[in-house]
Write a structure and sequence with these properties.
Clc chloride channel, about 10% strand, CBS_dom_sf, 3 domains, about 775 residues, transmembrane helix, CBS-domain, transport, mainly alpha
Length: about 775
C-alpha cells in the first residue's frame, strides 16, 4: 500500500459533516494527535496565522446542489400541472433576459464613468505638463499625477478593505468556487456588487495596471443571484416572485448565466461568454442551460451597445463590440502565411513561460500579503503606494523617452504628449502609459508600422510586467485580462518589429499588429490557462475569424508550457485561499483508498422521532457545528443498532424549531397551519442561527417527527467503495453529504467536500492536507 504524506499543522479537524470531530486515522500508521475543540482552537491560535498553502479552511461550507426530495417537495411537484412546469421554464428565460439587461446597464455605467473621469484626469495632467515643459518645473506635474492616482485608488481601496473585502480582485476565483459548490461568504451580496462597481471605476481611473473585465464577470454573477430570487435580503425587500427558484440548484444555473453575461458585456463576445462559463466557471451543465446562457449573453451585449450608441449620439449604430473595444482587424496585411505558424507557436511557448513566471511572482507576493499586509489600513497604504509608484514609473519612462513620432491629421491618440519632441510630433512612450489600458491595447493592435521603436516596447514590457504582477492581489476591484493582453501586445509587436528588421524584405512579415494580437493571446493564456473560450473571445472581440486557428494553437502551447512550471493564476489564488475546491477528477494515485479511510466518523445521528432538547443541544454544540445529520430508525429491539432512513440539514431543523413543529403541539392545536416549502424558501439563504431560536424548558421535552421533512433517499455508498468512485459520485451530483453504510444499512461514516478535497498529488506523491480554522 502506498504512503500518504501527512502535513503537520496546528489546526483542528472539524467540518460540516456529521462527524463528532475526530480525525481520520493516519493511513501510514503514524501516531495521531488529539484534536482540539473548536473554541479551544480559537483561543489558542496565534493572532497572525502563519499561512500554509497545504491547509484547507473550515470557514467554507458547501452549497446544496442536490434537491431535497422530502414529502413536502414531492407533494408540491405532484400537484403541479404540465402548464405550471411550462410557466417555470418561461420564467427561467425571463430571468436570464433580466440578468443580461441589467449586466449590460452596469457595464454601460462603468464604461461611461471611467471615460469621463479618466478623461478629466488626463486632460488636467496634460495641460499641466504642457505648461511646465516650457516654463520648467515638471516635478509639479509628477506630483499632480501621483496625487490624482493615489486619491482615486485610496477611495477604491477604502471601500474594499473596510466595507466589503470579498470585492477585492477580479472575483473570478470566487465565482468559480461558488459554481463548484463552495459557499464563499458574502460573494453574491448586493453590497459586494456596489463596492465592486464603484471600486473598479476608481481603480481604472487611478491608473493602476488593471482591467474591468473580471469585475464585470463578478458583477453579472451577483446580479443573477439577486434577480433569480425575486427579492433582496440586504434591503429586506421581497417582491413575491420567482419563489420556486429559491434554492442553491437553481441559483447556481443563473449565476452561470450572469458570469457569461459579464464576459459578453466586457468583450462583446456572446459565444465566448457561454464557453467561458462552461470552461472556466461552471462545474455542472446541461443542454437547455447553454441556450439560456447564450440568450443572457446576447441581451447583455445588445443592451450595452444600445445605450452606448445613445450616449455617443449615434442611436442608429450598434458597432461598439463591447466594454473593451479592440477594434476590427480587417486589413489585408493582417493575413498570415503558413510559414508563420511555427513562429506563432514559439510565441505561445514564450507566453506560457512568462505567464508561469508572472504567476510564480504573484504567488509569493500573495503569501507575503496574507502574512503581513492583512490589516485594512495596511492594505489601503499598499494600494496607494502602488498607485504612486505606477505614476512615477510612467512619468520617468515618458520623460526620458526619445521615441518621437509624427502627429498626422488622422492620428488616433487620445492624449498625445509632445514633451521634448519637435513640433508636430508626439512622445510614443506616452501612448502606452498616458492612457487607459484598453486604449493602449487598441493602439498596439492598430497603429501603423513605425509608431513604436524596439526600445520603447522593450522597456514598457519590462516595467508593466512587474507593475501588473504587483497590482494583482491588492485590496482593490481589478481584473487581470487587460494588463495581460497589454503586456503580450507589447512584446508581440516587438517580435514583429525584430522579425522585419532581420530580413531585407520587411513586407513578408506584414503588419506588426498581428504579432501584437498573437502575443496578447499568448500572454493571457500563459497566465489564466484558458484555451477554447479565450480563442472565441479574441475572435469575437477583434472581428477576424482568420486568426482562429493560430490563436488556438498559441493558447494550447501557452497552457502546456505554463502548466509544466506553475498552475494558472485563478487556481493558485483558490489554493492560497485554502478553499476545498473539487477538480474534475480524483487524484490519479488514489484508487487504493476507500470510503472507510476518508470518511468522517463517528457520526452524530438523529432519531426519526427525536426529542426537541436533543436537537437543540446538537445544533448548539460549537465544537462540531455540523450541517447534515443522518436520520436513523430502530427496526427491532433496543439492542440492535439503528438503521439509516433519511438525512436532514441544519437549516431545515432551524426552520422546524422556529415554527415549533412539535408532535405535542400538533395534537393540541388542531387548527395549526401545516408547514410548507414556502416557509423554508422564505428563510433561504440566510437561515437564522440556533442562538436566535427560543425554546422553553417545557418545549425541550416535546418530540419532533422528522419523517415529513427529511430526505428519505439520501445517496449512500458501501464503506469499501474506492475514493475515485466516491469522488465521481460526489462531484457529478453536486452533493453536500454522502452517507457511508455497512452491509446492514447502518451508518458508519459520512463523506463531505473537505474529506475529498484534502487529498491531492504533491511533490511526494499523494498528500493529505489538514483542516484549519482560518
Amino acid at each position: 500500500m502506498a504512503n500518504i504524506t501527512k502535513k503537520v499543522s496546528w489546526s483542528s479537524r472539524g467540518d460540516e459533516s456529521g462527524a463528532a470531530g475526530e480525525e481520520t486515522p493516519l493511513l501510514n500508521g503514524s501516531e495521531q494527535s488529539r484534536p482540539l475543540r473548536q473554541q479551544d482552537s480559537a483561543r489558542g491560535r496565534p493572532k497572525e496565522i502563519p499561512h500554509n498553502e497545504k491547509l484547507l479552511s473550515l470557514k467554507f461550507e458547501s452549497l446544496d446542489y442536490d434537491n431535497i426530495e422530502n414529502q413536502l417537495f414531492l407533494e408540491e411537484e405532484r400537484r403541479m400541472s404540465f402548464m405550471a412546469f411550462r410557466c417555470l421554464e418561461i420564467s427561467r428565460w425571463v430571468i436570464c433576459g433580466l440578468i443580461g439587461f441589467l449586466t449590460g446597464l452596469i457595464a454601460c455605467f462603468i464604461d461611461i464613468a471611467v471615460e469621463q473621469l479618466a478623461g478629466l484626469k488626463y486632460k488636467l495632467i496634460k495641460e499641466n505638463i504642457v505648461k511646465f515643459t516650457e516654463a520648467g518645473g515638471l516635478s509639479i506635474s509628477l506630483l499632480l499625477w501621483v496625487a490624482l492616482n493615489s486619491f482615486c485608488v485610496m477611495w477604491g481601496s477604502i471601500i474594499v478593505a473596510f466595507i466589503e473585502p470579498i470585492a477585492a480582485g477580479s472575483g473570478i476565483p470566487q465565482i468559480k468556487c461558488f459554481l463548484n459548490g463552495v459557499k464563499v461568504p458574502r460573494v453574491v451580496r448586493l453590497k459586494t456588487l456596489v463596492v465592486k462597481v464603484v471600486g473598479v471605476i476608481f481603480s481604472v481611473v487611478g491608473g493602476l495596471a488593471v482591467g474591468k473585465e473580471g469585475p464585470m464577470i463578478h458583477s453579472g454573477a451577483v446580479l443573477a443571484a439577486g434577480v433569480s430570487q425575486g427579492r433582496s435580503t440586504s434591503l429586506k425587500k421581497d417582491f413575491k416572485i420567482f419563489e420556486y427558484f429559491r434554492r442553491d440548484t437553481e441559483k447556481r444555473d443563473f449565476v452561470s448565466a450572469g458570469a457569461a453575461a459579464g464576459v459578453s458585456a466586457a468583450f462583446g463576445a456572446p459565444v465566448g461568454g457561454v464557453l467561458f462559463s462552461l470552461e472556466e466557471g461552471a462545474s455542472f451543465w446541461n443542454q437547455m442551460l447553454t441556450w439560456r446562457i447564450f440568450f443572457a449573453s446576447m441581451i447583455s451585449t445588445f443592451t450595452l451597445n444600445f445605450f452606448l450608441s445613445i450616449y455617443h449620439n449615434k442611436p442608429g449604430e450598434l458597432s461598439n463590440p463591447g466594454l473593451i473595444n479592440f477594434g476590427r482587424f480587417e486589413s489585408e496585411a493582417m493575413e498570415y502565411n503558413l510559414y508563420e505558424i511555427p513562429l506563432f507557436i514559439a510565441m505561445g511557448a514564450i507566453g506560457g513561460g512568462l505567464g508561469a513566471f508572472f504567476n510564480f511572482l504573484n504567488y509569493w507576493l500573495t503569501i507575503f500579503r496574507i502574512r503581513y499586509v492583512h490589516r485594512p489600513c495596511l492594505q489601503v497604504m499598499e494600494a496607494m503606494l502602488v498607485a504612486a509608484v505606477t505614476a512615477t514609473v510612467a512619468f520617468i519612462m515618458i520623460y526620458f523617452s526619445t521615441d518621437c513620432q509624427p502627429l498626422g491629421p488622422d492620428h488616433t491618440e487620445e492624449y498625445p504628449l509632445q514633451l521634448f519632441c519637435a513640433d508636430g510630433e508626439y512622445n510614443s512612450m506616452a501612448t502606452t502609459f498616458f492612457n487607459t489600458p484598453e486604449r493602449s491595447v487598441r493602439s498596439l493592435f492598430h497603429n501603423p508600422t513605425g509608431t513604436y521603436n524596439s526600445l520603447t516596447l522593450g522597456l514598457f514590457t519590462l516595467t508593466y510586467f512587474f507593475l501588473a504582477c504587483w497590482t494583482y492581489g491588492l485590496a482593490v476591484s481589478a481584473g487581470v485580462f487587460i494588463p495581460s493582453l497589454l503586456i503580450g501586445a507589447a512584446w508581440g509587436r516587438l517580435c514583429g518589429i525584430l522579425l522585419a528588421s532581420t530580413t531585407s524584405t520587411a513586407s513578408m512579415w506584414a503588419d506588426p499588429g498581428k504579432y501584437a494580437l498573437i502575443g496578447a493571446a499568448a500572454q493571457l493564456g500563459g497566465i489564466v490557462r484558458m484555451t477554447l473560450s479565450l480563442t472565441v473571445i479574441m475572435v469575437e472581440a477583434t472581428g477576424n475569424v482568420t486568426y482562429g486557428l493560430p490563436i488556438m494553437l498559441v493558447l494550447m502551447t501557452a497552457k502546456i508550457v505554463g502548466d509544466y512550471f506553475q498552475e494558472g493564476l485563478y487556481d493558485l489564488h483558490i489554493k492560497l485561499g485554502s478553499v476545498p475546491f473539487l477538480h474534475w477528477e480524483a487524484p490519479a494515485t488514489s484508487h487504493w483508498l476507500t470510503a472507510r479511510e476518508v470518511m468522517s466518523s463517528p457520526v452524530t445521528c438523529l432519531n426519526r422521532i427525536e426529542k426537541v432538547g436533543t436537537i437543540v443541544d446538537t445544533l448548539s454544540n460549537t465544537s462540531t457545528n455540523h450541517n447534515g445529520f443522518p436520520v436513523v430508525v430502530q427496526v427491532s429491539g433496543d439492542d440492535e443498532p439503528a438503521k439509516l432512513c433519511g438525512l436532514i440539514l441544519r437549516s431545515q431543523l432551524i426552520v422546524l424549531l422556529k415554527h415549533k413543529v412539535f408532535v405535542e403541539l400538533a395534537r393540541s392545536r388542531l387548527t395549526q397551519r401545516k408547514l410548507q416549502l414556502k416557509d423554508f424558501r422564505d428563510a433561504y439563504p440566510r437561515f437564522p442561527p440556533i442562538q436566535s431560536i427560543h425554546v422553553s424548558q417545557d418545549e425541550r421535552e416535546c418530540m419532533m417527527d422528522l419523517t415529513e421533512f427529511m430526505n428519505p433517499t439520501p445517496y449512500t455508498v458501501p464503506q469499501d467503495t474506492s475514493l475515485p468512485r466516491v469522488f465521481k459520485l460526489f462531484r457529478a451530483l453536486g452533493l453536500r453529504h454522502l452517507v457511508v453504510v455497512d452491509d446492514d444499512n447502518r451508518v458508519v461514516g459520512l463523506v463531505t467536500r473537505k474529506d475529498l478535497a484534502r487529498y491531492h498529488v504533491g511533490k511526494h506523491g499523494l498528500e493529505e492536507l489538514h483542516l484549519a480554522q482560518t
